Every structure is written in structure tokens, then in C-alpha cells.
Amino acid sequence: MSKSAVIIKGDGTGPELVDAMVKVLKECNSKIKLTPCEAGSEWWTKNGGNSYISDEVWQLLENSDACFKGPTTTIPTSKAPRSVAVSIRQRFNLYANVRPIKTFKNSTHQLDFICIREATEGLYSGIEFKIGDDAAIAVRKITKKSCEKVVRHGFKVATELKFKKIYVITKRNILKETDGIFWNVVQNIQSEFNQVAVEEYYIDNMTQQLVKNPERFNKSILLSTNLFMDIVSECASGHVGSIGNVYSGNYGDNYAMFEPAHGSAPKYAGSDKVNPVATILSGALMAKHLGEYEICNAIFTATEETINEGKCLTYDLGGSASLSKVANEIASRSKDHLP
Q1: Which CA distances in Å does 214 have to 134, 317, 323?
Q2: Alpha-carbon distance 62 to 267, whole Å?
Q3: What is the C-alpha to C-alpha distance for residues 301 and 338, in angstroms, rounded to an integer?
Q4: pTM of the model
Q5: What string of DSSP letters covers 120-165?
Q6: Tell me, what DSSP letter sits at residue 77?
Q7: Neighbours of 90 (CB within 10 A)
Q8: How many other β-carbons are positioned within 10 Å of the β-carbon of residue 217?
Q9: From CA 235, how far away is CA 72, in angstroms rounded?
Q10: Which of these, 7, 11, 68, 2, lies nearest to 30 by C-alpha position?
């Protein structure tokens, strides 16, 4: 029986990026049943409600094997719902957000490491309230249970890839209780994975090191809580040529969501201009998760060839090719790499 995936087209440039990703999968003869739907701020602006996701789409998600989320816009006002990504992560307990940082041949720094982020709690729990006209409080919720899930995932990925080190990012000298829970879980679980070393970095020092000497983290896992790793992975993404190249997966025990790491870029909507690489590679990760390993490998190889060759690149990578032209190039090359 073929696997199924819900495809959320998203906002801004999302629909055209998602169409490009779907085209590549279909050119590779993927057997995954793809069900397109709408969710996000553009849908919500027209329909209202307390969520960017309708009851009908939630039902589709519940009945699928995985989902793909195109870039969506989260309106930064108190009356708007929480983001599509956070809503899905919390609903399906997708505790591990995984962002590989792997550069291409023409990058100044040659990097190959993985950022793993706890994705269900921390400051993204959405617990905040006003205590007066000019003051408000946000709660950073950290639980041992959620820490155990993402930390164990980090050690498992390190073991599978034969990485020998995990860098744990905290601010434990200031956030003694919350980061203390995270650090204690790391120490306890490390005892099960003696071949993997652990080193702690504070968040401020880590961002400096990622600018100054990012190669030191090659063949390792960077692991942290929700906001810290959101910042760290975004900082690291600056070395990959463009945020438009950075792909990701969100994993739980029974479900997964895949998405590009960038936003919806509404000012470029419909212009056939933005970089489709992150969206296409996130789709390849989804194919791998749903059992289509050869298709995933073919898409990654084709994308690497396209970028390294340098003849068919979007504006953010120094080229002038359109979104659709880059997608067509990757699709054509992907087919050639399939058995």
C-alpha cells in the first residue's frame, strides 16, 4: 500500500515552491499519494477562526502518514493564531526539528553538521500574559519528558551517522533551572552512548563560534532547546549560500512534517523568482521517510550537481535563473540518477 502525505501549499511564495517540489517528486515517479490543501494566514484572513488550520485539514493530517508544509506567514499580533508549524508540532508531538547544515562546493566554509532542536515547548509554548499596560511575561516551559525525547533522538542520529560528538547549547549559568533540566537529561542519556562525546557551549559563545570557526563542528550534532536552536540553526544557515538552501524535517514517534527553513517572502509571490532548493530537498527527505530512499538520493545528487555547476542558479546564489527553471533542471537530473 502506498504512503500518503498532506501537502500544505502555504502563503506568499509557498504555492509555487510546493508545486516545484511536487513536480520533482512526480518526475521521479514517486508513489506517495499527495493531497494538497490550504492552511496559513491567507486562508485564515478569508475564513477566520482560532487556528490557521481548518477542522477539515486537521482531519486530513490525522489520516496521513506525513505532511509537507510550504512556507507560511505568522501574523505578529496578539489576536492571530499560533503558527502552522508550531500547531502541527505540538498536535503530533514532533519533538525533534532536524536541520542539516551541509555546504556546496563553492561555499567559503565547507561544513557538514546537523542542528537538532526541541520543537514543542520552551518559549514557543505560547504561555505569555500582560501584567500591566507596559509589562508582560513569557514562560519558558522545559520538561524532563520532552528533553528526553529530543536528546535521545540526537544521540541516535549521531550514532547512525558515526558522529563522535554532540555540542549541547544552553545558557545554564543564567537559566539554572530550565537549562539545568536539559543538561541533566543529556548527562543521563550519554551513559547509554559512551562512544559519543559531549561538550557544552553557551548560546552567546556558540553564535560567535559559528561565525568565526564553524568548521570545528563538522561531523557533529548541535543540540538545544527550542529558541536557542532556532537561532543557532539560522546563524549556521548563513554559510550554506542562502536560507533558500536549508531544508528540515520534524519528527515524532508516529508522524513527521517536512518544510523549508525559510519564510514565505510575500513580496516575491507569483514572480517565479525565489530559490526552490530548500523546498525540493525537504520533499526529498519526506520521500526518504516514507520509504523512497532511491528517489531521495537521486534528488540530493541532482541538486548538488546543479548548484556546484553554477549555470542554473536563482538570484540569491548569484544567478539569474527562475524558480521553475531550477526546478526543471533538478527534476531532469534526478531522473537520470534513478536506477
Answers
A1: 40, 20, 30
A2: 33
A3: 10
A4: 0.93
A5: SSBGGG--EEEEETTEEEE--B--HHHHHHHHHHHHHHHHHHT--E
A6: S
A7: 17
A8: 22
A9: 21
A10: 2
Name the DSSP class of 31. -
206 SS3 class: helix
Cell of 155: 544521540
CA-closest candidate to residue 298, choices 316, 319, 283, 315: 283
DSSP assignment of 2-22 = --EEEEE--STTHHHHHHHHH
Total residues found in the chain within this entry: 339
* pLDDT tens profile 252-303: 999 999 999 999 999 999 999 999 999 999 999 999 999 999 999 999 999 9
Please name each of the domains of the chain with its CATH number.
Answer: 1-92+269-339 (3.40.718.10), 108-239 (3.40.718.10)
- CA dihedral (12, 82, 287, 9) positive or negative: negative
Residue with cell 499527495: 34
pLDDT digits (tens, 9 = 90+) for 184-214: 999 999 999 989 999 999 999 999 999 999 9
